[in-house]
Amino acid sequence: MSGLCLASLGEVEESLMRTIAECVEERIGLPVVRRMQLPVPLDGYDRARGQMSSVTMLKLLLERAPSGVSRILGVTESDLFIPMLTFVFGQAQLKGRAAVVSAARLRQEFYGMAPDGTALLGRARKEAMHELGHTFGLIHCPDTRCAMSLSINLPQVDSKLEWYCEGCWPVLQERLEEVRYD
What we know:
The chain is built from 5 helices and 8 strands, in the order E-H-E-E-E-H-E-E-E-E-H-H-H. By secondary structure, it is α/β, with parallel strands linked by helices. The chain has a single domain, classed as Collagenase (Catalytic Domain) (3-Layer(aba) Sandwich). Helix 1 crosses helix 3 (117-135). The N and C termini lie close together (8 Å). GO terms for molecular function: metallopeptidase activity; zinc ion binding. This is Archaemetzincin family Zn-dependent metalloprotease.
């Protein structure tokens, strides 16, 4: 089966990259290939918003994706946006190859609270699983415990699991089988 390329966009803590790689391998069985750090695409920075375009990051990931992997997941410390929303925790191509997750708003210190490394790692795993689910065609799930549940704030991220519900998991398994035989 072709696997996942995990790439940092800019500097990202090793513990964050490692926990995402382990989660993907354990939870969905995709082998993870680590890639060297990619540069943050400065042409995606919006000065008025003080944020990076997640679309620009997805384009860079697709351009730099190594051959032989079915998916590429970027992880960044940059605060991300899409034009219609104030921010996003991440973004993915629905039924595509690329996804990106931002650690910026998953950090408690972003909101003026004391850092919590354990919470950050758990949130990053959940959002990575969520965005990867989109690449396999999964849409937002009404089950608030499912990794595919929409999260627009930290309490919603914290309340879901890094796992898929009984409705989403079989769909993901079917899509993973398709990837195994590509």
